[in-house]
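Regression report. Comparing outputs from two consecutive submissions.

Submission 1:
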Amino acid sequence: MTITDVPGFQASGIASGIKSNNELDLALITTEDRKPVAAAGVFTSNKMTAAPVLVTRKHLEITGGAASAVVLNSGNANAATGEQGLLDAEQMCQLTAQGIGCDPSEVLVCSTGWIGYPLPMEAVTFGITNAIDSLKDDQGKVAAQAIMTTDTVPKNTFVSGKGFSIGGISKGAAMLQPNMATMLSVLTTDVVIDPKEATQFLQQAVSVSFNCLTVDGAESTNDTVILLANGKSGVKASSLFAEALTDACKDLAVQMADDAEGSTKTVFLNVTGAKNNDEAESAARSTANSQLIKCSWYGQDPYWGRIAAQIGASGIQFDPEKISVSYGGQIVYAKGEAQEVDAQELKKHMAQRRIDLHVDLGQGNGKSEVVTTDLTHAYIDENMRTS
C-alpha cells in the first residue's frame, strides 16, 4: 500500500526522456478534486540549495501552506543551475497547474539526480503532460518507481490509525546524513489538520526518522519531505496521528538504509548512558560514520575496539572502564576488557542483513538512536561515476 491508498489522492509515474534509458523519471501526485489541501515541508539545511527546494519553500510561504499537487523528476537534480534552474522549476509548476486547473503557487516541485546539468525542459514538458493524463487512484507505487535514482527498489509505506490513514513514498540510497539527504519523500493523509500544525508534526517525525539515518556523512542539495493532508476522514490530528506519522517516516527511512548503495548491512545503533542527549548523538554519529567501523560490519566482525576508540576520540565525556558494547544482545566489551560470548550466536547475528549494536557510556541519561550501513566495494564503484 502507498500514497494513493489514502482516499482523495491520485498519482502517476511516466518515462519522459530525462533519463536516457527509457526508465520512469517523472511522477505527479495530486488531490483527486485538484483543490488545495493543507501542506507542509521539511528541507535540506545545505546552503547549496537546489532550485526546486527554493521554489517549493516559496510556494508554501505564498499559499500559507496549501498545495494541490507535487511534481517530481529523477535523473536531474536541477541544482547548481543558476537563474535558469529557478525558471525551470517554476515552469514545472506552471505546466502542472495549467494541466490540472490550479494556481502555480499551489504546486510543489522536487528533483533528484545529477548536479550541475540543466533540466531538459522539452522532455519535462512532454512528461508533465503525460503524467497528468495518466493520473489514477492506484498509481502510487508507479510514482515511487519514477523518483528512483540509484535505488534498486521503490519505497512505499502505509499506516492506518483510528479512522485515518497515512501513505508515503521515498527515494534515497546514498548521501544520507541529516538533515536528511539525497532523499525525496511525499506523504499523504486524510486527517484534519492546519498547515502550522502539519509542519510541527512533520518536523517532529523527521527528527526521529530521516534525520536519524546516515550512510556516508554527506548531505545533499535537494532533500525534501512533503506532507499533504486533505481532511477527508473528518478525524482531527492528535498524538495518535503524530505516532502514526513517525512510524511511516521510520519505515521509509529503514527501507532507504536497506537499499543504500552497495550496502550489505543495516545497523541499528543505540547509544545510552551519555552525559546528555547531544553527547549521545555525537557518539552515535561518530561511530556510524567511521570508515573503519563500517568496514568491520562489512566483514561481519563484531570488533569492539574500533568502536571504543572512535567514541573515545569524539570529544565527549568518556571513561573506558564504564563503556560497554553489545552486538545482538551479547556484551562483547565491558569494564575495560573483552567479554566471553557465545561465538556461534554472535557469528549468526553478524551474518544477518540487520545488526543491532548497543553502546552504553555509563556517564548519565543521554541517549540517541541512529540507523546506518556498512561500507563496501560496491559503494565505491557506484560513486566513482561523475556523469
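Submission 2:
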Amino acid sequence: MAGMRLAALVTATALGAAAPGDLGGGWRAERGDWVWTRDVQPMLLQRASQGEARAVRTGMEAERNVWRCVVEPGLGATEAGFAFACDEELSRGIVVELGGSEVGGFALRTAAGERLWEDRWGPWQAYEAYVLEGVLEGSRVRAQVLEADRKTLVSQSDWIEAPPDSLVRSGCVVLHTRDSRARFWGVEAGDQPLSPLTDDAPNNRRLWQGPEGDWHVRGPGNWMWTDGTRTRMRQYANTERAWATYHKARGCDRLWRSAVRVHAPAGGAGMIVKSDDTAESGFIIWLGGTHGAGCLMIYRLPMEALWASAQDKWHYDEDLILQAETQGAQIRARLLAADEQTVIAESPWVPLTEEEGRREGCLAFHTWLGSAEFWGFGQRDE
C-alpha cells in the first residue's frame, strides 16, 4: 500500500488542464507544484518536495466556527496543514499543521509564525490520512487532529487566546506545505467540531519526555498511558520498532521487573535493563520467537542472542511478568504468570563481561511489529 501511495504522490496525473495558478474548484496555486488527482475522490496533490507551497481558496462561509481539512503527508514530510480565519497573503490567520519533530508533531500557530500551542510528540505516519480541525469561539482558538475515521482523537489543544489582529473572518482557506509532498481533500466549514474538548485527550496521556521529563522515546511509536491514572503504559502504533527509556529506574546489581501484555499481531516486546538513555545498548529480556506463541530470550544489544527458552511460553493478550536479575558479571531472566509466583520460563545465569557487570544503566521498553502494554515496572533490591 505504501508503495502505491508513493507512486500516487510522485507520478499522479492531473484530472484536467488548468491555466497557470488556476486549479479549478475555486483553488488557485500560488507556490509549489499543485495538481488535481484522484483516489476515492478528487483531491489536491502538492508534488514539490522542497520549499514552501500554497494553494488558496476564497469565498467560503466566513462566519463559520469550525474549519477542517483532510491531509495525507508524503514520505519525509516536515510541515503540512491549512490556514483559516486568514487573508490570502497570510499576513493574518491561524494555521493548523502536522510536523515539528522527528516522530511527527502537531501545532497551532499564527500565520505570522507565532506558535500558540504544540504537541511535539504527536504521532503520524506518511501516507496515512488525518483530519485537521481548527475551532473559533470569539477571539479564542483551538485545534485538534483525528484519524481518518473522524472519530479517533490523536491530539487536541486547549483554548488559546489569539493575539490581537491575528484573525480575519474572510472565508479564505490556504493549504500549505514546507519541504513536503502531501494530498488534501475534504476542506469544509461548519459549526460543530468532530470532538469536544476533553481532559482525556491522548496528548495529555503521552509520556512526559524532554529535558525535564522522565522518558526518552525513540522511533515512530505512540507511547501513552492507557488512562488518567498513569499506571499502565502502551505503545499503540502499528510500527516496526519503537523504544521508550525510563530514566528514573536505574541501577547496576538489581532485580528488574515489569508486567507485559503483547497485542496481536505484534512480533514481540520486552524490557531492556542496564540500558543507555537511547535504548541502543544493554540487555533485552524479550518475548520473541513464534508470533503469539513464542519464547523468552536474553539479547545483548544490538543483536547478540545469549539465551532462549522453548517456544509456546507467551501468548497474545495474556498478562505476564518479565523479570531480570543482574549481579556482578552475570544476568538471568524469568517469565512469570500474572500471579507473580508461577514460573513459566527461566534462564540460567548468563555471563557478562567485567565492564558490563560494573556498568549502571536504566530501564527501557521495546516493541516490534505492533503494540504492547507495560505496567508495575521498576527495580527491586530483594
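Expected: both submissions complete independently.
Actual: both completed, but the second showed a warning that disappeared on reload.
Relevant detail on submission 2: The first strand starts at residue 22 and ends at 24.
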